[in-house]
């Protein structure tokens, strides 16, 4: 028997909102990472920890992107693109209503 997942998934608008936060986090992480790496070096514990945080972010972003593609129509995707990655929906643009 197939198990039914009763937990609700993100709506398209929830994906757009969370994707904006993920992209902002990625930009913030980059700023912190390169500042720490420049001052402490690549092998410092803080730099290595920041690298592991980024590895986790990549996994989360990939999983959420997969879920986004399950709810986005072809028209949504044509308009929005890959919302979890840079170079997509403008951070100043409001999510579509509906």
Helix content: 55-70%
Mean pLDDT: 87
Rg over alpha carbons:
17 Å
Termini separation (Å)?
35 Å
Shape field = elongated
How would a crystallographer describe the biggest sheet?
Answer: none
Question: How would you sum up this structure, described in words?
Answer:
Helix 1 (12-40) runs antiparallel to helix 2 (45-71). It is elongated and about 45 Å long. The chain has helices at residues 12-40, 45-71, 74-80. The protein is built from three helices and no strands. 64% of the residues lie in helices and 0% in strands. The chain has 98 residues and is mainly α. The longest helix has 29 residues, at 12-40. The model has no long low-confidence stretch (mean pLDDT 87).
Which characteristics define this entry?
98 residues
Break the fold down into its secondary structure elements and pairings:
Blueprint: H1 12-40, H2 45-71, H3 74-80
Helix pairs in contact: 1-2
Q: What would you say about this model in short?
A:
With 98 residues, this protein is mostly helical. The chain has 3 helices and no strands.
